[in-house]
Amino acid sequence: MSCRRESFTLAGLSFNDDALAAIESEIKDNSGSAIPQPMMIVGQYGSGKTTLLKRIYESVLCRKMSKVWIDGRTLFSSEDIISKAVDAGASIMFIDDMDFYLSRCTYDEQFRLRKFLNNEGAPMMIGAVGKVLPALTDYDAPFFEGLKNIYLRPVSSEEVRFVFDDQTAERADLLMSMLPLTVRSLEIVCDIININDIAENDIAILVFMFSERYRCLYQELPVNSQHILNAFGTDGNPMTMPRLREITGLPTNVLTAYLKNLGLSDIIRIDKSHKRNTKYSVKDPLFRLWLGQS
Questions:
Q1: How far apart are the first and last CA of the chain?
Q2: Any residues with CB less than 8 A from the CB of 91 and at least 6 apart, and which?
């Protein structure tokens, strides 16, 4: 048996137990409070945020509470949240994928929601986001203060070993090194090992599974960004400005502008630790492999 599914289930259920306990404790402490403190679950995609949010929503603790579930993809203003909470008469609201709201709405618009939550008798808000956004860290942001953040931890190497037997643990470690350390990644690795008996094919299968996602990401980028990424596919990481200039034929000012945008998009890592020798690399190792195979 290459991947112990029962062990995976048991491990998966326990990954975010600490976060679950912390949130339930906050709900109990805020029960009956005139102005309950809002909370935000922060964890990268695949870390189990939605599953955790649903566990709380369906928990015994919240079963008798008036509540509302809100999909962040439907939110374009604070009123979209406020009206749903008021219409449901909710004492607690769960907002999944709140990244959409925080990235779409201005700080002035977000202050409307903050003002609503600060009213006596307002519902408690429990949101979930895929990463730490400026709307949570900027000093002037409405939710810079007064928001309790619950961070979901990455999967540990011990948990990976718990799921896989001795014969497949090395294969699992290699595949996990290409992926975010999340519950979803463990599930993907488990599926690959269970369907494939030849270890040498593992990486090719993994790249194939993500191929369409990377193709869409690549196609949406400007032509010069695609040109730069092609260089990483042929020459690898990391690369210096002179080497990028040599491969792409693009002038320094163009490279600088597009590399900056790729960095802001979290695609490229920019290492300035060595003076006058800045190094650039593709952050996602699997994306780099895809670029090399395209």
A1: 34
A2: 65, 66, 67, 123, 124
Per-residue pLDDT of the chain in tens (294 residues, 90 and over written 9) = 456 555 555 444 466 888 888 899 888 887 767 788 999 999 988 888 998 999 999 998 888 899 999 999 999 999 999 999 999 999 999 999 999 999 999 999 999 999 999 998 899 999 999 988 899 899 999 999 889 999 998 888 888 878 888 888 899 999 999 999 888 898 899 899 989 989 999 999 999 999 999 999 999 999 999 999 999 998 877 999 999 999 999 999 999 999 999 999 999 999 988 777 899 999 999 999 999 985
Q: CA 226, CA 108: separation in Å to the nearest integer?
A: 36
Closest Cα to residue 50, out of 16, 11, 5? 16
Helix, strand, coil percent content, the chain, rounded in steps of 5: 55, 10, 30
All residues at 6 or more sequence positions from 149 whose CB lies less than 8 Å from its CB, including other chains: 39, 40, 42, 136
Cα four-point dihedral sign 220, 226, 232, 237: negative
E strand intervals along the chain: 39-42, 67-71, 92-96, 124-129, 148-151, 239-240, 268-271, 279-282
Look up residue 51 and give its two tokens.
């599953």
What's the whole-model pTM score?
Answer: 0.79
